[in-house]
Amino acid sequence: MTHLISRVLSRRTAGTSDAAPPKGPRESTWRLCKELSPLLRLLILTQLAFNIGFYAVLPFLAEHLGTAIGMAGWLVGFVLGLRTFSQQGLFVVGGWLVDRFGVRPVVLAGCVLRIAGFAWLGYAKASWTVIGAVLVIGFAAALFSPAVESEVARQAVAWEEDGHGPRTRVLALFSVAGQAGAFVGPLLGALLLAVDFRTACLAGAAVFVLVLAGHLWLMPQHIPGRVSVRARGGARLLLRNRRFLALCCAYGTYLLAYNQLYLALPDEVQRAAGSQAPLSWLFALSSVLVVFAQLPVTRWAGDRLDLRRSMTAGLLLIASGFAVVAAARPAGWTGTAGLLPAAGFVILLTVGQMLVVPAARAWVPDLAEEGRLGLYTGALSSVSGLIVLAGSAATGFLLDLGLPAAVPWLVLAAVPALAVAVLPRRETGAEAA
User: Organism's domain of life (predicted)?
Assistant: First the structure.
């Protein structure tokens, strides 16, 4: 997989920095690789491994619960919801623990829990054992994801301050690594399922054993510049930070839009194609776009847009993706022609994602109090997750109302478009909007 990342990096065009201009795209790419600290390289490869292990198992969980375990449909949905809650809902807890105890112990604890959770899930037969395993798996991610994400963001800021270029370049590479893992993981899981689900779970656990060993060996006990925060009151200050909460709301509308890949898009594909088989190709299209286009898009945006304008452009692109489907729905196209609006939606959503996600993550360090970056990074996911929870319920209700075909998609288009008005104004020197 490191070869995959290298091939992705080699597609970058020349970056910008305070250093001498690069001689060519390949030299610029290798300069970027060399400029990354060993810690940043470890964290980025960690994200790749995390997602390979995670997506080797979780995409196949619902079918396993319904067929092998024999759970009712409502209970399968409940278990999947519990996993999401124990992960996204508790990110803020993981972030607080990172600020209190540091990155290394929280990442190591998350890896141990993920190993235990996957092994437990592989052998779980009763409903209560499955629920216990799923909760452990979710909470593991609530520990290590805020730890890794917050430290990548902090290191990216230091990288920018050292004159290497916009911090979004580092965060874009982090997104590429995660998406590459999300692409490879299901392929690995599908091969392992030829044996059985337990084998897939144990393989996922083995990936996290390797991650655990890597961090025990390579992660420093103390990261320069990071100090533990013992004072209370971080949550109170966060809830009073209107600019950060505004960012969470805007980011939450992006996540709500992304969630339509699993809610509104399947219905549209079913209508157009008569089955949901083309969904896998559309998901693959999204992953491949991120892997091969994220870095060039981020470089382009970094040369022309500040963080607020990058998020604005991304949210408007996402809105236009919904509008494409809304405009085509009255025609009632089916077959290949009927899938074109869905493909357009996926492309515009993915390009919007490429602009929104690195910019939002890069913005958090500017809005967080000193020493509270872990808490704020976790809160970004938790608060946004609550928005997705409420918004998804509302979207499901909207889709069931029997309204004219274009109306739900127009409403969904309006949400990210209106979120542009919520974005906070930048107030940091030259970056102020």
Answer: Bacteria
For residues 6 and 139, membership in a common domain is answered with: yes
What token pair was written down for 232? 């209370």
Q: What is the DSSP letter of 425?
A: P
Residue 34's CB: how many other CB atoms inside 10 A? 7
Query: C-alpha 127: how far from its chain's center?
Result: 29
- 112 versus 232: the higher-pLDDT residue is 112
Taking residue 431's Cβ as centre, other Cβ atoms within 10 Å add up to 12
How far is the C-alpha of 320 from the C-alpha of 352, rounded, in Å? 10
Does 249 lie in the same domain as 182?
no
Q: 7 by DSSP, 3-state: which?
A: helix
Residue 257 corresponds to which amino acid? A
Residues 141, 57 contacting (CB under 8 angstroms): no
Write the DSSP string, 74-135: HHHHHHHHHHHIIIIITHHHHHHHHHHH-HHHHHHHHHHHHHHHHHHHHH--SHHHHHHHHH
Specify the range with the lowest mean pLDDT, choosing from 218-222, 231-235, 376-380: 231-235
C-alpha–C-alpha distance, residues 124 and 255, integer Å? 31
Q: Which of 302, 318, 185 is nearest to 251 (CA)?
A: 318
Distance CA 175, CA 295 (A): 9
Report in angstroms the alpha-carbon separations of 293 from 298, 345, 347, 418: 9, 17, 11, 27
> What is the total residue count of the chain?
433
Indicate whether 289 and 218 sit together in one domain: no
Per the prediction, the chain carries an average pLDDT of 83
Q: Which domain holds residue 137?
A: 1-14+23-228
3-state secondary structure 160-200: HHCCCCCHHHHHHHHHHHHHHHHHHHHHHHHHHCCCCHHHH
Residue located via tokens 């602009």:
355
Residue 97 sits in a domain whose CATH number is: 1.20.1250.20
* pLDDT tens digits along 178-195: 888 888 888 888 888 888
Place of tokens 């597609």: 11
Tell me, what's the pLDDT at 427?
53
Q: Give the DSSP per-residue string, 295-340.
A: HHHHHHHHHH--HHHHHHHHHHHHHHHHHHHHHHGGGT--HHHHHH
| Token pair 């928005």: residue | 387
pTM: 0.79
Nearest to 145 by CA among 105, 89, 209, 87: 87
Whether residues 295 and 380 share a domain: the answer is: yes
